[in-house]
Amino acid sequence: MNVKMPDFNVKKLVKEAGSTLSRVVQLTEEKLGTSEKTEFDNHFENLYERAECTKVWTEKLLRNTESVLIPNPGNRVEDFIFEKIEKKKPNRLSNMEYLGLDMIEAGGEFGQDGAYGSTLIKVGQAEQKLGQCERDFIGSAGMCYTQPLKKFLEGEMKTIIKEKGILETKRLDLDACKNRVRKARSMLGQQTAEQDLRIAQSEFDRQKEITKLLLEGISTSQSSHLRHLHSLVEVQVRYFNQCVEIMNGLQRELASMRPPTPRLRVNSEDIVECDHCDAPGPPYLLTTTPNFTISSLSNIHSQTPQLNAFVAESPTRNLQGDNDEIINAFASIGHTENISSI
Asked: Higher pLDDT residue, 238 or 275?
C-alpha cells in the first residue's frame, strides 16, 4: 500500500521559523528598550489614526442603527446567523401589525355595528398600514445604509488591517537586519547582513507604499458614507410622511364617525363648543341684551341641574330683560365670576 507523504520544504520551514524567532527577539528587545525601532513618518501615522477612528465609529454607527431598526436583540442575532449561512431572513410581522390584528379581532368580537367595535377595526387597519410602512422602512434603510457600512468594514477595512499587519512584520524584519549589521564581526558576516538589510528595506518600503495608498482611500470611503447617510435621511422622511398621511386619514375618518357636539350660541353670533354638554335636545340659543355679557361659557357644564332648569323652558328663549334671572341662575351654580354687568 503506497501512502503519499506530504511534500515538506524543510529549508522553507527552517527559514520561516528563523524569521519568526528573529521577530520575536526584536519585538522583545523593543519592549525592553534595548533595541531601536523604525518609526513611521507623521503623515503615515495620521492616516492610520484616521483609519482607526473611522473603523471604530463606523462599527458603533452600524451597531446603533441596527438597534434602532431591529430593537429585539434576539431577532438581530437570528438575522446575523441567517446571513452567515447565506439563507433568506424570516419575514416577521412588526409590533404594530400584531397590535392591529388584535384590535381588528377585538372589534369583531365587540360587534362591528357598535361605535367601539367599528372604531377598533378602523384603528387596527391603520396600525397594520403603519406596521407595513415600518417593515418597508427597515428594508430600505438596510439596503441604503447598513449594508454599505457592513461591506466597508468586512472588505476595505479588513484589507487595511491585514496590510498594516504585514507592514509591521516587514518593519520587525528590517530592524532585526539593522541589529545584525551592527553586531556583525567578520567581513563576510557584514556583507551578508548588509545584503539582507537592503532586501528588508526594499520590502518594507514597498509594503509601506501599499498600506499608505489603502489608508488614503479612507477619504473616498467617507464620501461614499456621506451619500449613504443622505439616502437614509430620504428614506426616513418618506417613512414618516407615510405615517403622518395614514394617521391624518384615520383622524378624519374617526371625526366623521363622531356624533355632533352640542353648542351654546351667544348673541346669535359667537358660538362656543360645549364639549361637556351631554343633555339631549337642540343647542341652547342665548340672546342677551347689550348691557350684559357672559364670558368663559366653555367652563360651564350645562348638565348642572340649576342651569338645565333655567334653559329647559325653551331652547331658544329670548332673555331680554331677564338679567336678574340669568344672574341668579349662574350664581346658583357658582359661576358669578362669569357674569359682568355694564
From this structure: 238
Mean pLDDT calculated for residue range 46-68: 94
Tell me the CB-side half-sphere exposure of residue 194, using CA atoms within 13 A.
7
Residue 310: name the closest of 321, 302, 320, 300 by CA: 302
pLDDT of residue 123: 95
Residue 17 has pLDDT above 70, yes or no: no
pLDDT digits (tens, 9 = 90+) for 124-148: 999 999 999 999 999 999 999 999 9
| pTM, entire model | 0.65
**334/328 Cα distance (integer angstroms):** 10
Residue 104 CA: distances (Å) to CA of 73, 112, 147, 270, 304: 29, 10, 36, 42, 38
From CA 110, how far away is CA 97, in angstroms rounded? 20
Q: How long is the chain?
A: 342
Q: What are phi and psi of 293, to 5 degrees?
A: -130, 145
| 3-class secondary structure per residue, 164-231 | HHHHHHHHHHHHHHHHHHHHCCCHHHHHHHHHHHHHHHHHHHHHHHHHHHHHHCHHHHHHHHHHHHHH
pLDDT at 226: 96
CA distance 93 to 132: 8
How many C-alpha atoms does 316 have within 13 Å on its Cβ side?
A: 2
What phi and psi values does residue 181 have, to the nearest 5 degrees? -65, -40
